[in-house]
Specification:
Helix content is 38%, strand content 17%. By secondary structure, it is α+β, with helices and mostly antiparallel strands. The model has no long low-confidence stretch (mean pLDDT 94). InterPro entries: C1GALT1/C1GALT1_chp1 (IPR026050), Fringe-like_glycosylTrfase (IPR003378).
Length: 339
Amino acid sequence: MEEEFEGHHIHDVLSGISEEMKKSAPEFEYYRDLHKNRNRVAEFAAENNNTTPFRRKAWDLDKWKFIPVVERALQEAQPDTKWFMFIEGDTFLVWSNLLKWVAQLDWRKLSFLGLSVTMHDQLFAYGGAGWLLSRPAVQQMKQHMTSQKDNYETFTNDSSYGDLILGYVLEQAGLGLTEAWPLIQRETPSTMEYTKDLMCYPVVTFHHIDSFEIKSIWDLEQEWIAAGVPAPLLHFDIFNRLVYPLLAPRIDDWDNFSDGEEKLLTTDEGFEHCKQHCEEDAQCVQFRFTPKKCIMSRSVTLGWKADPSMNSVSGWMMGRINQIKASVQCKGETWTSTD
């Protein structure tokens, strides 16, 4: 909806969708309801926001924004804009790292960077992780769209995922996707699988992130900036500040997302037996015990609190993790897998 919000102009990127499609596509019922209640949006949202059908309607409409938001970004951009970075509402952007990253890139090239995903045989950039386009890439997409808009509206209507739709359009426009993991990625500090190989990469985005983690990362970034640290904020820095201090040999009612080798246990075997299995694997750094099952992992993940009914107990091999930490030596700036 076109409106002013706390000094920011909010664009209705769906305004350019054809009237015929707005009338026929069922997702636009929600769009019309929003506009009918434009003078009482807060009340309208409060009345409906906790209902599954209402939330589903918002999700269904979401697919229509991906092509128009790129087109509108080019339309509204300053003449000297070189890069376009797109993120979702629950994506956190490490802005200082983004600026350092694009400084390494040539904006004059046709560049489309993101976290690659394949679905229904279509390669695309996962929307929640964010995606980066150079100005020439956006211009080439816009030129390609000139004669194809009606076709792509039909394609969007027949598809389910907006980021897949955008990936298809960009591919048809001759723009290939460049893998940008782990700079652009879909995890939070709590769900990231930390390995030694990951640690020295800068981090540009986090996804599905809550307000507490947003503030924690923001505070760390501001410390970096205030101290004049020239190096980018690394996954290793996030791990040391936000993850490592919360690890422990044992945490009850906790799921650390261990997803490696599984060992079946007897009813008489418990947490200590699970720990022993992990000790026997020299590369195991964490494990998760539930009744009759032990799951081990060779990467470190914090995870989150589990429902007490699951009887989930998580453990970390702190000695091994300390050895990994001590062995990490980040030299220079590693912006791609070939650096």
